[in-house]
Design goal:
711 residues; alpha+beta; ABC transporter transmembrane region fold; Rossmann fold; 6-stranded antiparallel sheet; 6-stranded mixed sheet; 25 helices; 53% helix
């Protein structure tokens, strides 16, 4: 299998990716591969290759080879060797091992022994859990826990160096008047301090890597889930709600990889410090134990109030953000209605409520923080008093007291940090519940390894007693509606505003799922198709064209990623927008999708959307209110497309335009949740047949009259 040149630049990894997919029997196409590859990146590395394979349903693992024999069950696999091109190892039908060289593209026999390097082999697909999704992701990092705990143990041991150095300085060097041992003690303390700093840096670096991996896994998973949700569910939730779910993860990541993680890693080894404190002074160790108990009691007493305040603040902030998003999306409508001041007042009121709720949270958390700091200060004073009494009674030396105070703060530090982060635990738990509830929702996307049928080719469409409601409690838009459309037909769907014309098109595209009945394409239920495969067999022109940020060519290639420039021009010419694009300063390289695209006339944007749909050359073409309220050039472009594509693909258009209904073979009317066949409209006037006028004597020879017939 050769990768299209528009997708990736040739390299050993791209050749190995192509060969590995061929060996694995992958049945996808360029569109599927493009969706798995990094966006706008011609070159890929090993991480990109593994991510792409995982998205396509082939997760991988790494194994180090040290001249040991490769077990056949690990094949096929990729072999990565320093200084050499990547290779693919696989078995031929006879069981012999072959090696595909990514550098040359050649295949040669290869023995299983004596290989060195890194083996990237494929693993079984583990189904993603429907519940406790975040916990399942977190379990992937359990292998990093021993290293982090080991580093924390070394940090705790090395942290004893400075207190012990201080104790010996006071008890031995000063009290015993032996300065000769001071350089050795100072050198040992300095070495312990430097190694402690080194291990802290290594631990911090490991946590940053975990945070990066967690960010990549969770944020990509959450965004992928949002994109895979049914369209109706996403539309009901709104933009602000979806964005807030992405923000939830930022709270989780900061909590798990920030100060709380450091405190949690240090906390188990405070027992070692407590044991040393008991050895040094005995009673001084009681102080941190009492402080820990007091902090625990404070947490239990404040937990309920803080939880309620955080929940109220989150709801108020979400309402404020939703109002802001709604206003920004309808900014032009508000300006036209001169309603900006009223909306500003509504937002100010919502912002004030959110600010008050946040202030209550800040007040509670501030009070808890003040009390915890007072406990810390009181613990220090109590330790001094207990230690002084012990010194006066000969229970410990002055050096031991100073060392014990230094150790005390090494115990109280993680306790205070952990307690401060516990106040955020409720918010983090709420965010985790939000993420888990999102990931538990049913999506329209099938499992990566689940086999689905081939895409439709003929374009036959049928509805069998279809019922559709936007909300469970709302009236049905369709109530047991049925229709049949033959391949190649041109069908217009009309009806009143809100009758469900666009919903019929969305049902065909699988964007909406009916609550009852069946929608079939080529005799198969649309739910039997992979949604992405189904929609690649459908050209769609929306009522309101939307352009993503990028060039016109990039927006056109959304429908056909591997389309050549000539294909882009051909589709633009058919949509009658080629001349308009070429008149732009940068032609097809003109950037749209931002404020610049609003300067383009809607007629041009709509014809660009039409060209994008034509570029796919799909068996089904859906036109949602084409050219409504636009100029004659745009309307004529749609009409010419319908005429040219008649019989080549099934065309279903929702329209009010009489001229478009005249182009249709049939007109369907939506009324009271039913689909009715409208009476045939008179077609466009046909040119009259010119009959030559013959003289009477010639007419008899051209049109002979049977005997007995009247003239």
């Amino acid at each position: 299998m050769e990768l299209p040149p528009l997708l990736l630049a040739p390299s050993d990894l791209t050749r190995c990716l192509s060969a590995a997919l061929a060996v694995l029997g992958w049945r996808g196409g360029p569109d599927d591969l493009l969706a798995a590859l990094p966006h706008a990146q011609a070159q890929i590395d090993v991480t990109d290759l593994r991510n792409a394979l995982a998205i396509l349903g082939y997760p991988t693992r790494l194994a180090q080879l040290r001249r040991t024999a490769i077990h056949p069950r690990l094949l096929p696999a990729l072999l990565l060797q320093p200084g050499r091109p990547a290779a693919v190892l696989y078995l031929d039908p006879t069981g012999a091992m072959l090696r595909f060289d990514g550098g040359t593209g050649q295949v040669a026999p290869c023995g299983p022994d004596g290989l060195r390097g890194t083996l990237v082999h494929f693993t079984e697909i583990e189904p993603a859990p429907r519940q406790n999704w975040f916990a399942a992701i977190a379990r992937r990092f359990t292998g990093d826990l021993p290293g982090l705990l080991g580093a924390s143990a070394l940090i705790a041991l090395l942290g004893l160096g400075v207190p012990l150095f201080t104790m010996h300085v006071f008890d031995t060097v000063i009290a015993g008047n032996s300065p000769a041992s001071l350089p050795m003690l100072a050198g040992g303390a300095l070495a312990a301090l430097l190694f402690e700093i080194l291990f802290r840096m290594l631990r911090q670096r490991a946590l940053l890597r975990i945070g990066e991996r967690l960010d990549r896994l969770v944020s990509a998973g959450v965004f992928s889930q949002l994109m895979a949700l049914p369209t109706a569910l996403v539309e009901r939730a709104g933009t602000a709600s979806q964005v807030s779910r992405l923000r939830d993860f930022a709270t989780i990541r900061d909590f798990l990889t920030g100060s709380f993680a450091l405190a949690a890693l240090d906390l188990p080894f405070t027992l070692l410090v407590l044991v040393l404190m008991v050895a040094l002074g005995g009673w001084v160790a009681i102080v941190p134990l009492g402080t820990a108990a007091a902090l625990g009691l404070l947490f239990l007493l404040s937990r309920g109030a803080v939880r309620r305040a955080i929940s109220a603040a989150a709801q108020a902030a979400q309402a404020r953000d939703a109002l802001a998003v709604e206003a920004l999306e309808a900014a032009q409508t508000l300006k036209n209605a001169a309603a900006e001041e009223r909306w500003i007042g509504r937002y100010a009121a919502a912002a004030a409520r959110a600010a008050q709720a946040s202030a209550r949270v800040a007040t509670l958390t501030g009070l808890v923080t003040v009390v915890s700091q007072a406990l810390m200060t009181g613990s220090g004073l109590a330790a001094v008093v207990v230690g002084a009494v012990a010194v006066l009674h000969g229970g410990m030396s002055a050096g031991s007291l100073i060392a014990g105070m230094m150790l005390l703060w090494r115990v109280l530090g993680p306790l205070q940090t952990g307690f401060a982060m516990l106040s955020r635990w409720e918010q983090t738990q709420a965010s985790i519940r939000q993420v888990d509830s999102l990931m538990a929702l049913e999506t329209e996307r099938p499992a990566a390894a689940e086999a689905r049928m081939a895409p439709p080719e003929a374009g036959a469409i049928s509805f069998q007693r279809v019922t559709l409601r936007y909300l469970p409690q709302s009236e049905p838009v369709l109530a047991g509606a049925s229709l049949t459309i033959r391949p190649g037909e041109v069908v217009a769907v009309t009806g009143g505003d809100g009758a469900g014309k666009s919903s019929v098109l969305r049902l065909v595209a699988g964007l909406y799922r009916p609550q009852g009945g069946l929608v079939r394409i080529d005799g198969h239920d649309v739910r039997a198709f992979d949604p992405a495969v189904l929609r690649r067999s459908i050209g769609w022109v929306p009522q309101a064209p939307e352009m993503l940020y990028g060039t016109i060519a990039q927006n056109l290639r959304l429908a056909h990623p591997t389309a050549e420039d000539d294909q882009l021009r051909r589709a633009a010419r058919e949509a009658r927008v080629l001349a308009a694009i070429e008149m732009l300063p940068e032609g097809f390289d003109t950037r749209v999708g931002d404020n610049l695209s609003t300067r383009l006339p809607r007629s041009i944007l709509l014809r660009i959307a039409l060209a994008r749909a034509l570029l796919r050359d799909a068996p089904i073409l859906l036109l949602d209110e084409p050219a409504t309220g636009l100029d004659d050039v745009c309307a004529e472009a749609f009409a010419e497309v319908v005429k040219a594509r008649r019989g080549r693909c099934t065309i279903l258009m929702a329209t009010h335009r009489p001229s478009h209904m005249l182009l249709a073979d049939r007109v369907l009317r939506l009324r009271d949740g039913q689909i009715e066949e409208a009476p045939p409209r008179p077609g466009p006037p046909q040119p009259m047949l010119r009959v030559p006028v013959f003289p009477p004597e010639a007419a008899a020879s051209v049109f002979p009259v049977r005997a007995g017939a009247s003239a």
